[in-house]
Write a structure and sequence with these properties.
By secondary structure, the chain is an alpha/beta fold. It has 2 domains: 249 residues, Rossmann fold (3-Layer(aba) Sandwich), CATH 3.40.50.720; 84 residues, Oxidized Rhodanese, domain 1 (3-Layer(aba) Sandwich). 34% of the residues lie in helices and 18% in strands. Strand 1, helix 4 and strand 2 form a beta-alpha-beta unit. The radius of gyration is 21 Å and the shape is elongated.
Length: 349
Amino acid sequence: MESSERKRYSRQIILSEMGLTGQEKLKAAKVLVIGAGGLGCPVLQYLTAAGVGTIGVIDNDTVDITNLHRQILYAAADVGKCKAETAVAKLSAMNPFVNLIAIPVRLDEENATEIISGYDIVIDGSDNFPTRYLANDMCVALNKPLVFGSILRFEGQVSVFNYNNGPTYRCLFPEAEEGDNCEVAGVIGILPGIIGTYMANEAIKIICGIGEILSGKLLVISALNNTINIFNFSRSADFPAPAQTAIAAVTNKIPEKDAHEILMDDLENLLESEPDKIQLIDVREEYEFEEDFIGGINIPLPDLPENLNQMSPDKTVVFYCQSGKRSKLAADLLTRSGFTGQSLWAKKA
């Protein structure tokens, strides 16, 4: 490592957990960032600044004017330009010691093996379920850790999948549940900066072998209410270890429906026939609850841990939300808390 590099990273190197050894690990690391958008921008900026040796940037999209309020790597003059190539040009000027590679294509089943196999860690900043499942399955097949983040409105999530054969994306979200996205529901501009920074931090910790990794943990942050919660989850028996899956994982086989899921039609029938036996709880944000009321009470997911005492063991507790993500986490949380009754989850759409 050149003396000028040591000086550049000196404030990191003096950390006892990092040292020169950790900085050299960063320099030797190869990280693939999927998506150079809202999450990808802060991830790329901080990994480049930290001195990660090789960073691949895969994105086939172009900069749009609607991106600029949150994708602050780009400027108005970049509208219409290729994101991957523009990001690499700007990041290369930021740190000439980093090898940045633009991959201006969409990740798909035909190129995923070749692209991902060339990197040590994959960071998923994509905004669609097919890419998320493909990235997950390929990382499982190739035994590579996957850093995950997602954002919507005011809420963001971060986790690390397939770390030391730990839980995978499918263990947490076994089924693709298409719901709202930022284009439809909106997103506060600073949120990707918060979540993307957390994602970059997880990648750095994995590379350097320091700290506690968010493996088997889902970090949920509400920028609206200033709440931070961590939900634990385990590896699903329905999704075997990498040695057992090989490349067949990319066939996108999805495990059967969760035993604790209740279909909306069945829930509506129960509410009509036995309303006194059901405790219905909407775990969406308050504004979602008010705009689209279907019954029950509103306890947003970030507020649930401190309100578990409101759950009645004499009734079947049913959590619901738009896509099923938050309601499933709520049901799992209640079960882990020692709740003796039955808890179910439902998705509205």
